[in-house]
Write a structure and sequence with these properties.
This is Mesenchyme-specific cell surface glycoprotein. By secondary structure, the chain is mainly β. It contains 5 helices and 31 strands. The strands form 10 sheets. The protein has a 4-stranded antiparallel beta sheet with strand order 1-2-5-6, with no helix packed on it.
Amino acid sequence: MADMLYVMKDCQTVIVAAEGEAFTRDGKFVNHPYTPVPRMDFVTNQIILRKNHNNCHNTGCNMFVSTLHIYRYDELKPAGVRFVYTGNNSTFSQDLEPEYIAVDKDTNKAYVVLQENNAIAEVDLTTQTITNIRGLGYKQWGGLDASDRDGGIRITFWPIRAWYQPDSAKFHQWQGRKLLFTANEGDSKEYRSLGFTEEVKGQDIPTSALGPEIHEMVKSALRDESLLGRLEFSANDGKDKTGTYRALYTHGARSFSIWDLTSANDDVSSALPQLFDSGSEFEEMTALHCPHAFNTNSDDPDSRSDNKGSEPESLTLAEINNRLYIFIGNERPGTIHVYSLGRDVSRPRFETVFCGGIPDNSKTTQQNFEDGELYGIDPEDLKFYSADESPTGKPVLMVAGAISGTVTLLEVKVTDDGSDDSPSTLMVRL
């Protein structure tokens, strides 16, 4: 079950994130295999992919598969690595699910996102070995809109935690530092026929299960649907051996982050060093510039606030005018947030939020779609093309909208001189 492919520039090698999700059949649990990170080396120019991967050698490819069974969970847990489903004799290795791949071409190293597990696996492509698994720690929330029943946009401070759980990631070297950029969507596991879900509404957490570490304000808010009662929490994380919650965790950080690979050490018990997280800026900037698209699911703004918010999903990078631009696509509303980096790698500058594909009118989503006014909804992938690469001769961002069923070209207009002054970025549909 391939979730993502990364094609190397030699056009002969493809790295595959084979997620290997477990599933149920006839009410019985079918365990996932030890999660692989295959690398396929194509040795002929014509490759015919077949349904039976065992025939791969007949099509001219050699496959290397490295599995993630060599690490003990107890060593990784302090860094925020998660072991989600422990039933049916599942092992930690079987619980790991590769989601996305970023590659450092200089060192021939891949960074594989393990989304549900809140971790990054480091793979040496030369020796074909997994060299490390690094947890991402947790986010201490500042502000977020935690309810779809609070009458609109209500970004409030809550002393709760979140797992980052990125979907996409990109590697880039900037200002002499090796950086990993992540779009922190969030995800959880669920096996309905087995009665397993790792999410629980705040109002369904018994007060008796909350330890003294949980703030009294939070305990009270969990009983109110307009506050924390509707918010989805992890049903398992934050508990001690008696089943008492010592901390409350949500899935997904509703943000993008920059991680410092240059200063990372080999201590698997410590989280990957973080240089920056956008905090609550995605919600704040959307509320300011695109309130009609705030945490929306089709026609209903605020409807995703109790789940994972905007669900930052896709990400791409571009060097323009001596700055590094970061484009982050948000799944649910279809907005794109843009930041840029100058000399200080820990202080990105907010540039703009694009919501042109989500019309602010009285039509329904279906009507806008039929009229050709809806595009870029659920931006599953983003790709930047410089003026030299672009068919228009101008810098463009290509957006694959999974829900809208569209591929859109957005012209990227930058009037910045490369300094750290005020933002000056604009995107328009071609």
